[in-house]
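HUMAN: Spend a minute on the protein record below and explain its fold to me.
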Amino acid sequence: MAELDKFDHRLLELLQENSRLTGSELAYRVGLSSAACLRRVQRLRETGVIERDVAIVSPKVFGKKMMVIVLLTMERDRPDRYMLMREAFAKMPEVVQCHHVTGAHDFVLRIQVTDMEEYSAFVDRVFHEPYIKRYESLAVLGSLK
């Protein structure tokens, strides 16, 4: 992995906000030439520092106005179910992010739904398994970053 200097860090900050910035826009904000910025960005991609460029689609376009963060805890005596849950979550359109985590909970999910009624149906369909010990739902009021 390449050593990152202050210019690389600044480029990464800018690209995380908007990956479509042009070389001249990056140059203006970073203080290097456009060519130098583009070479650095290419190096960051080639070395795997930048894994991929993605488009973040507004869920509201699809009517999914409500976001819920779910903290899910599974029964500890059922480790075989972790992989099954990971595979199941990957296929669920409501689950837009899934993290297998350490600590008091096993999974952190970001669920995107139309409203509370749709979320309630999701809960009834998904969280009824006996190997799910508990879940905690956090309705998102707003996103800051």
Summary: The radius of gyration is 20 Å. The longest strand covers residues 66-74.
